Amino acid sequence: MDCEILREKGQLLSLTREWEKEVDWSLGFNPSPEFLAEELDKLVSDPDSDVIVLIDSEIVGMLALTIQKYPISNEIVASERAWFVKAEKRGVGSIRLIREAEMWAKEKGCTHFLMYASNLASGLHDKVCRLYQRLGMKLFETSFVKEL
Fewest CB within 10 angstroms: 9, 58, 93, 142, which? Predict the structure, then answer.
């Protein structure tokens, strides 16, 4: 499996449809694969963002990143915007994508790399947290949501 920066728009709709099958709908959000694909396409032309794709004869995963100044300091951080790997390519594929994103962040001059573990990702939350810790990341924040 190889990783590369996505350069052309319109290539992620089938992957976002796979993502939709795993979303936990009980949190009150109404995820749309079409909307997510459009948002990811916007990042392709944003100079402070990129979408790294995992390829195994086709796109089987993606990690979208944005560079920003952290709100409480002057440090430049790379922040995950979206992340998904098809179930059969997880494990080695997920690690490969995260490592590639870390290298991308370093090349962009970032001092930190932020990844999120969302409960929106169905039953994967705890597994993702363990993966992040194995990769040397530290627990940083906890978020809560309330439907209004």
Answer: 142
